């Protein structure tokens, strides 16, 4: 009885702490990792510094939303699989609810062409430009990786299909392996002992991850059920994104806009709104799902896009020690990370720039917003509110 009470107490504690982070964690995945470190490591000491660093390294290695995967991993280590689910719900639900409500507002009041919506689209220009600069400095420091990024940029601009991004990421992994397989891996301490997920369960999770990824498109082609098609599109996007929330933009745009499930205007308005809410950027999927099929679609989209993150973190944690010391794996990852930069630059041009910047005044507002974010270091929600206000002023005087 006492053991059950302790487990329940632990789950309640995880829910309270993660929900508070879900309401206050603005600033994107890197900022989220800082919030996690302050709350989970420094204040509550749920794990040591080295264990946390290893967990972060693993989640940077995996496709999917890195900060969400770190939060899930911390929850699992603290309270088992239920702890991971609880941690995820607390951190994710606030932004999911906010974006579903925004989608409802967009439809109910027909505000798609309002000035403040155009301002949110210009916010997306500033945010993605800032992300590109930061990621390029870290992920393409030498001429080889810059060349990989350039090749990826050209391919994704000239050959715009849902499968292009998958192809260039796989090709970049092969090139990275060939170019950087001699990379030495520094000796590291053991990851963590007593992890509450067995290797057998890890194999099951990895088998489910790949099984769903392979079977869903087949089932989708054999049926005409809309929710299966939606689940497949969101699951595939969540499973194949390296680099975090900003990089999921081109995959989601290619999946949903050409098929007519939502317009380019609706897509970019939601992306701008996603910058105004705390929590993971992957909750942008909740907005898309809600635009397509109400709050039920929003919840389905959230479950589908985050399911790969769950399966991957639970599947790989038991094997991380062996993976992280493999120089071949590290070389492939270096190539993939360089490709991410190219994909992000491609998305910056289309659809973000081509559907947001039409007049000199649009570019001027984008420059102001970028300066607020990159140099004045203002919180993202202030930048978003300023962009909406700027968009209203532009529409008023034009």
From TrEMBL:
Transmembrane regions: 55-76, 88-109, 115-136, 148-180, 200-222, 234-252, 272-292, 299-320, 332-350, 381-397
Name by which UniProt lists this protein: Chromate transporter
Superkingdom of source: Bacteria
Record organism: Alteribacillus persepolensis
Gene Ontology MF: a single term: chromate transmembrane transporter activity
Subcellular location: Cell membrane
Keyword Transmembrane: yes
Membrane topology: Multi-pass membrane protein
Keywords carried by this UniProt record: Cell membrane, Membrane, Transmembrane, Transmembrane helix
Pfam hit, one: Chromate_transp
GO cellular component, one term: plasma membrane
Keyword Membrane among UniProt keywords: yes
InterPro entries found in the cross-reference section: Chr_Tranpt_l_chain, Chromate_transpt
Family listed: Belongs to the chromate ion transporter (CHR) (TC 2.A.51) family.
NCBIfam families given in the database record: 2A51
């Amino acid at each position: 009885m006492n053991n059950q009470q302790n487990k329940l107490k632990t789950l309640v504690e995880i829910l309270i702490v993660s929900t508070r982070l879900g309401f206050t964690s603005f600033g994107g995945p890197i900022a989220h990792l800082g919030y996690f470190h302050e709350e989970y490591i420094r204040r509550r000491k749920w794990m040591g510094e080295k264990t946390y660093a290893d967990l972060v390294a693993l989640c940077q290695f995996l496709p999917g939303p890195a900060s969400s995967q770190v939060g899930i991993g911390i929850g699992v280590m603290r309270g088992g699989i239920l702890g991971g689910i609880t941690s995820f719900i607390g951190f994710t639900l606030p932004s999911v609810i906010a974006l579903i409500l925004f989608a409802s507002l967009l439809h109910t009041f027909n505000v798609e062409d309002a000035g403040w919506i155009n301002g949110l689209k210009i916010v997306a220009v500033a945010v993605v430009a800032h992300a590109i600069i930061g990621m390029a400095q870290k992920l393409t420091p030498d001429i080889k990786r810059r060349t990989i990024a350039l090749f990826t940029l050209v391919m994704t601009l000239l050959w715009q299909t849902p499968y292009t991004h998958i192809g260039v990421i796989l090709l970049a992994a092969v090139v990275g392996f060939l170019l950087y397989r001699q990379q030495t891996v520094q000796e590291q301490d053991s990851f963590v002992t007593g992890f509450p997920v067995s290797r057998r369960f890890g194999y099951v999770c990895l088998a489910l991850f790949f099984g769903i990824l392979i079977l869903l498109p087949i089932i989708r082609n054999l049926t005409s059920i809309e929710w299966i098609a939606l689940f497949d599109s969101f699951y595939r996007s969540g499973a194949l994104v390296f680099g975090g929330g900003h990089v999921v933009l081109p995959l989601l745009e290619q999946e949903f806009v050409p098929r007519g499930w939502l317009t380019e205007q609706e897509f970019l308005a939601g992306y701008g709104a996603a910058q105004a809410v705390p929590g993971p950027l992957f909750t942008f999927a909740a907005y898309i799902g809600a635009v397509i099929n109400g709050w039920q679609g929003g919840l389905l989209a959230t479950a589908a896009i985050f399911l790969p993150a769950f399966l991957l973190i639970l599947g790989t944690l038991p094997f991380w020690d062996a993976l992280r010391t493999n120089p071949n794996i590290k070389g492939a990852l270096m190539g993939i990370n360089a490709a991410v930069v190219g994909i992000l630059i491609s998305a910056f041009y289309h659809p973000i720039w081509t559907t947001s910047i039409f007049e000199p005044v649009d570019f001027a507002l984008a420059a102001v917003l970028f300066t607020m974010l990159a140099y004045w270091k203002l919180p993202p929600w202030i930048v978003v509110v300023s962009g909406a206000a700027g968009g209203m002023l532009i529409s008023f005087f034009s």
